[in-house]
Amino acid sequence: MKRLMVANRQFGSRSRYAHDNFELILTAQIHNMLDLGWNRKDIILLTNFKFKCMGVNATIIKNR
Fold first, then answer.
1. β-bridge partners, 53
2. pLDDT tens sequence across 13-54
3. Strands of the chain, DSSP E
4. How far apart are alpha carbons 5 and 26 in whole angstroms?
5. In a 3-state reduction of DSSP, which class is residue 16?
6. 45 with 51: CB under 8 angstroms?
7. What is the pLDDT of residue 30?
8. Buried-exposed string 33-43: b where 16+ CB fall within 10 A, e elsewhere
9. What is each CA distance from 27 to 6, 50, 53, in whole angstroms?
10. How many Å separate Cα 6 from the centre of its chain?
11. CA-CA distance, 28 to 47, in Å (whole number)?
12. How far apart are CA 24 and CA 2, in angstroms?
């Protein structure tokens, strides 16, 4: 079984989530999944920016 997460950050927007908070939330999610027993290879993270956390690397996708 795989776990899919999609994170799409809008650069330059006045979103209430700042850059640091956004990455903090992703990091917390990954830590939680690993604590629950998910394997790193089973976590699929799709983002529109570079991100790496505890051996989980994001696959960068383009916005349309």
1. 56
2. 666 655 667 788 999 999 999 999 999 999 999 998 899 999
3. 3-7, 43-47, 52-53, 56-57, 59-60
4. 9
5. coil
6. yes
7. 96
8. bbeeebeeeeb
9. 13, 13, 6
10. 7
11. 16
12. 22
